[in-house]
Amino acid sequence: MTSGGVAYERRSAAPVIAPVRPRKLAKVPFVELADGRLQGVVSSGSDVERVYVSSITAGDHGLSCNTNNNRPCGGLSGGARACNHLRALADAAVAQYGVDRVARYLKVALADGDDDLWSGLHPTTAPDRAAEVFSGFLRHLAYLEVPVTAEPLPELHWFPAAGAVR
Description:
Blueprint: E1 2-3, E2 6-7, E3 30-34, E4 37-43, E5 51-57, E6 62-67, H1 84-97, H2 99-106, E7 124-125, H3 130-142
Parallel strand pairs: 6-7
Antiparallel strand pairs: 1-2, 3-4, 4-5, 5-6
Helix pairs in contact: 1-2
């Protein structure tokens, strides 16, 4: 993929892909397909100071859901049945990336015309990855506090400038 003859991988700015359809950031403020998982942060419906860190691993469909204080989610029953946080995460991912892309990433086989991601999942219990996922969420939040500038960011110095690549 190129833009103006420059490969995206060699630029300091990546293209932003528009979501497939709008999603509510208040319910699921962070969702990503990364590290072999669909992972993200889901707001608690009952406590404004609590969020749930949820993930579904690609391939084996391992489910994990914990609070930001590393307490297990009470709605995740033995890993075989998804809690509401995981369902909200999956819904947000489908809204953000589209069902086809999410299904491909998680290695879910869906019947033609089927847009229910859960119909193709065969859930198991996954290791707790809450600390990794929550750390990534906090790292993304930190960029919201960076003042707007055209100058390079020191922590991203290893990206070449867009004009330097030919």
